[in-house]
């Protein structure tokens, strides 16, 4: 499983993910390990994806090859060039799987999120689906990708990211990731990886910042319980 969330806040972008991946050993035994799921592309673009690791790696290679163009802005021409390179790779992966397994079950797929700052300093979130259909999602204010996305959407509906300062958006993102991991029976795991894009600058939160977030998260939960107790006492 994977969970990646993207919040379009007042001052910029927050993108967060869990870190667990699962592969099969030579004896077909599932093996868990940590993997990076969010990447920096150029100066002010973030890329996150859920799906087959091999397709995520190929997608990152393609996006990195366009990093200079990303720095100039996410134009229609750039979007079409990226999709034209992605489509044959995704199509071949599907065809190879069906030819080998004689079934579409377990077919490798990918779900792509790209957040960037355009030439007008607007923050855009571009979603590319497994069939290369695409859309912009910044007007919604949030999106999630991966097997844990339904849980994330349930929580995200309690907030309005576009009205949140970036600092608060980071805490909301951490809480959603933390709670999703807590209820997941299998597939989601810490460490939580959080990236921000503000004023054209990208930051990847370090271990100290994540530890501080955890303290704020625990304090939030305590205060939430106190409010509930007060309401129940009325």
Task: Record keyword descriptors for this entry.
alpha+beta, 27% strand, single chain, 5-stranded antiparallel sheet, globular, 234 residues, 42% helix, 12 strands
Description:
The structure is a single chain. The chain has 234 residues and is an alpha+beta fold. The chain has a single domain (4-205), classed as 4-Layer Sandwich (Glutamine Phosphoribosylpyrophosphate, subunit 1, domain 1). Helices cover 42% and strands 27% of the residues. It contains six helices and twelve strands. It has helices at 53-65, 67-72, 76-101, 149-156, 166-183, 207-233; strands at residues 4-8, 12-17, 20-24, 30-34, 38-41, 45-51, 110-117, 123-128, 134-136, 142-145, 193-198, 201-204. The strands form three sheets. A five-stranded antiparallel sheet has the order 10-1-2-11-12, covered by helices on one side. Strands 5-6-7-8-9 form a five-stranded antiparallel sheet. The protein has a two-stranded antiparallel ribbon with strand order 3-4. Helix 1 (53-65) packs antiparallel against helix 3 (76-101), helix 4 crosses helix 5 (166-183) and helix 5 (166-183) packs across helix 6 (207-233). The longest helix is centred in the last third of the chain and has 27 residues, at 207-233. The protein is globular. The mean pLDDT is 89.
């Amino acid at each position: 499983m994977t969970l990646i969330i993207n919040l379009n806040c007042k001052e910029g972008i927050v993108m967060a993910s869990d870190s667990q991946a699962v592969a099969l050993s030579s004896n077909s035994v599932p093996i868990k390990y940590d993997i990076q799921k969010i990447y920096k592309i150029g100066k002010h673009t973030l890329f996150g994806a859920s799906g087959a690791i091999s397709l995520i790696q190929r997608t990152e290679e393609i996006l990195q090859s366009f990093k200079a163009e990303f720095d100039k802005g996410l134009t229609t021409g750039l979007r079409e060039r990226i999709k034209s390179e992605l489509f044959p790779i995704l199509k071949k992966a599907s065809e190879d799987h069906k030819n080998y397994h004689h079934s579409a079950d377990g077919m490798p797929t990918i779900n792509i999120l790209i957040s960037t700052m355009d030439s007008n300093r607007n923050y855009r979130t571009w979603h590319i689906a497994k069939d290369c259909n695409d859309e912009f999602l910044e007007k919604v204010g949030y999106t999630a990708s991966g097997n844990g996305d339904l849980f994330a959407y349930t929580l995200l509906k309690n907030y309005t990211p576009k009205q949140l300062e970036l600092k608060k958006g980071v805490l909301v993102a951490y809480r959603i990731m933390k709670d999703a991991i807590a209820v997941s029976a299998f597939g989601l795991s810490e460490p939580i990886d959080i990236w921000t894009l503000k004023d054209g600058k990208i930051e990847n939160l370090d271990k100290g910042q994540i530890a501080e977030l955890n303290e704020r998260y625990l304090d939030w939960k305590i205060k939430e319980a106190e409010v509930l107790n007060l309401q129940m006492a009325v």
